[in-house]
Amino acid sequence: MERRIFHVDAFTRTAGKGNAAGVVLDADGMSEEEMLRIAAALGYSETAFVLKPADAGHDVHVRFFTPTVEVPVCGHATVAAHYVRAATQGLEGSFVQKTGAGLQRITASRHGGDWRVAIRQGAPTFGDPVAPALRPRIAAALGIRPDDIAAGLPVQVVSTGHSKVLVPLADVQVLDRLLPDPAALVALGAEVGSKGWFPFAVGQRCTEGRMFAPAIGVAEDPVTGNANGPLGAYLVRHGLMAHDSERLAFEGHQGRALGRDGVVHVDVEIAAGEPAVVTIAGDAVIRRDSAAAAQ
After folding, report:
1. Of the listed 46, 92, 208, 269, which one is catalytic?
2. Alpha-carbon distances, residue 215 vs 71, 101, 182, 194 (angstroms)
3. Which CATH number fits domain 125-283: 3.40.50.2300, 3.40.50.300, 3.10.310.10, 1.20.1560.10?
4. How large is the greatest C-alpha to C-alpha distance in the chain, in angstroms?
5. Could you report how far apart the first and last alpha carbons of the chain are, in Å?
């Protein structure tokens, strides 16, 4: 049978910008091998496969595949999937999504004449700061000098469902100089316990970052919800952006180096000075849809 595949750019309203994802609606009955085959053929960093709920505890089940492996959850492909559901089926409102990382609250609502999708991510978790002895190796793996990593701030694994190694940089110009060594990042990721690397710089009310995950077949991801969400928790934990003690809201900019600029809208609820609830939101645009045979 044929499956309808949507080609979507997430975290943008401009076709060809943001982060591209595949979306397969009505994926029930597909095997894992079929999903991986389609994800590999599309070549996007992630493709979302939308399934009917397995029980009354959730409204929709979504699985995510890179070209080489299934991952537990993906921010931009979630935005893409629920944007398609809203745009083609009128499915707006709040939903519970089951993923490999657990349950997430998703909201699809009208915004500026189109749809915006918000994702309530998992509770923030923080790993121990990466050992100081690893910082020069991390800098070398990113193609920068050790002093390009911001002094006094930890390199740290943070997760709101799918962990990233957050690497604070001294300034935004360092982002443009990054020349990552994929093999070195894969090896270091195995040591620190995360496969995704997110170097970033902080501005006034925004951040800019880049994300590399060669261990899962993603050389560089244009715009990453599951990096900018943990970044919001990191900013609160380490006092890097002013807030009113109850909420921090900012824009996470990413993709400029690839010519695919996009924006993740990040909202962090704060309790007793600590990040408690992280929500990310994004726009999207459908570039086209096509059919692919599932065998």
Report:
1. 46
2. 12, 19, 8, 9
3. 3.10.310.10
4. 56
5. 7
Token output for 42: 């599309």
C-alpha dihedral over 229, 231, 232, 238, to 10 degrees? 150
Task: Give me 124's structure tokens.
Answer: 């923030």
Q: Let me know if domain 3-119 sits in CATH 3.20.20.60.
A: no
Q: pLDDT tens digits, the chain, 295 residues: what are they? A: 678 899 999 999 999 999 999 999 999 999 999 999 999 999 998 999 999 999 999 999 999 998 989 998 888 999 999 999 999 999 999 999 999 989 999 999 999 999 999 999 989 999 999 999 999 999 999 999 999 999 999 999 999 988 999 999 999 999 999 999 999 999 999 999 999 999 999 998 999 999 999 998 889 999 999 999 999 999 999 999 999 999 999 999 999 999 999 999 999 999 999 999 999 999 999 998 876 544 3
Catalytic residue at 191? no
Characterize 127-160 residue by residue with b for buried, 16 or more Cβ atoms within 10 angstroms of its Cβ, and e for exposed: beebeeeebebbbebbebeeebbbeebbbbbbbb
